[in-house]
């Protein structure tokens, strides 16, 4: 369960009093998610998401994320902007954390997407990449390729506690993937960088929400598709690849951005990089999250297996 910071009813009522948002009826911690604390808040006038920003979200990056949400929402994309208080302020402090009241979107988070849902979600990602063409801000990818080796070194030999031999195998994988990464002549733009099925809300096959933009950054555009491909096209253990989902993602994305020969040639390396990024952040969390923490740790090996599938040509375009 991702509720790292507890908020008292008194503190939340005082927080809500800054907004034209009615009076507090109830607030429930949301189990899903691993990065931030999220509450479902009902008031006498509406339902909201309250997010308190934790570990990997730097307060200084919040203006970028919120400006991006406002930009995308203004273009009609189904993203949830932050609510402004009566003074026009979006970023507040609550229980010692930076906090925002966010528009609630209907729909359910996906856990087992169908090809039709994958197609719709990748089409929505393509629409997002179109919509950022005139977004004026940039943000370096704090979880991008330059961060992978330092994170690997921080994990160190403890990686072998996750699986014997993992340290050396990951070291070799990083050597292979990072060699020439910077030199790829690929388009860059603001990307989501974490568009997993649980960050897409749907009703049936219709996308009603793209959420959790707190890793959004400027990076290779097709890397965003590679992240999505790695997250959507495998079962939870990372052992079984679902080519029909992979194909649906590409079909949906190509409705906005047909893949070029260069995109296709780069795709396996981008997907392997995505796998290392999530294997490493999960490994770090696995090794550093107390066993009794109120959060479900995600399995790093489920991502390492995906890496092997792309490396060995068992998954891909
Ligand atoms: N704007 C929103 N509208 C509806 N539900 C949301 C919204 N934002 C988050 N949620 C719900 O909260 C869960 C956790 O949110 P998420 O942003 O993924 O958390 P984290 O940043 O911790 O990963 C989501 O899976 C979804 O169920
Ligand atoms: N999607 C990442 C972790 C980030 O969690 P999220 O809940 O913010 O998407 C993973 O699965 O490792």
UniProtKB/TrEMBL annotation:
InterPro entries, per the entry: Aminoglycoside_PTrfase, Homoserine_kinase_II, Kinase-like_dom_sf, Pseudomonas-type_ThrB
Catalytic activity: L-homoserine + ATP = O-phospho-L-homoserine + ADP + H(+)
Signal sequence coordinates: none
Keywords noted in UniProt: Amino-acid biosynthesis, ATP-binding, Kinase, Nucleotide-binding, Threonine biosynthesis, Transferase
Class of enzymatic activity (EC top level): transferase
Residue ranges of every copy of the Aminoglycoside phosphotransferase domain listed in the record: 27-255
Pathway assignment: Amino-acid biosynthesis; L-threonine biosynthesis; L-threonine from L-aspartate: step 4/5
Enzyme Commission number: 2.7.1.39
CDD domains the record matches: HomoserineK_II
Family to which this protein belongs: Belongs to the pseudomonas-type ThrB family.
Protein name, as recorded: Homoserine kinase
Organism: Sphingomonas zeae
